[in-house]
Amino acid sequence: MTSIATTLAPTLRRAVGWLDSLQPLALLAARLYVAQVFWLSGLTKIRDWDTTLALFENEYQVPLLSPTVAAWMGTGGELALPVLLALGLAGRFAAAGLSVVNVVAVLSLAEIAPAALQQHQFWGSLLLGLLLWGPGKLSLDGLIARRFGGTR
């Protein structure tokens, strides 16, 4: 007599296999979404640099850095790291760097609206996933690993 688990096992294995096959697309979607968020923020900062500097001097309280250095580093990170993340080149490095930018952005505001905090938490969770699992097969990291005998 077969148990229900024995009967369902092949179906569950197929379902898990199907879900696993979607992982590269999910990682790509996460990379592109988070990259766009930070890229657009960086573009906003360079469009009006005087306002950006004023915000870093008066609104954002970045610890350990002068407002000018913080503005340059934050903007640079928001423009360079999303490109790497979108391409999946040094994907874990880009995810780690954007995680730092994300955390500093939250910590540098004296007050943050609950909805804004929730957005930062969502971006942080996506970045954590990319940091833990890497950028996936649909990335330059994956292509390089396959080309040179890596595990992707």
Topology readout:
Elements: H1 4-47, H2 49-58, H3 67-87, H4 91-107, H5 114-133, H6 140-147
Structure description:
The chain is mainly alpha-helical. It has one domain (23-147). 79% of the residues lie in helices and 0% in strands. The protein is built from six helices and no strands. The protein has helices spanning 4-47, 49-58, 67-87, 91-107, 114-133, 140-147. α1 packs across α5, α2 crosses α3 (67-87) and α4 (91-107) packs antiparallel against α5 (114-133).
What are its keywords?
152 residues, mainly alpha, 6 helices, 79% helix
Structurally, how many domains make up the residues?
1
Helix-strand topology string: HHHHHH
Q: What is the distance, rounded to the nearest whole angstrom, between the alpha carbons of the first and last residues? A: 41 Å
The radius of gyration is 20 Å
Instruction: Specify the number of helices.
Output: 6
Mean pLDDT: 95
Structural class: mainly alpha
Approximately what portion of the residues adopt beta-strand conformation? under 5%
Shape: elongated
- The parts where pLDDT drops under 50 for at least 5 residues are none
Characterize the main sheet: none
The number of distinct β-strands equals 0
Task: Report the helical percentage.
Answer: over 70%
Briefly, what is this?
The protein is mostly helical and 152 residues long. The protein is built from six helices and no strands. The longest helix has 44 residues, at 4-47.
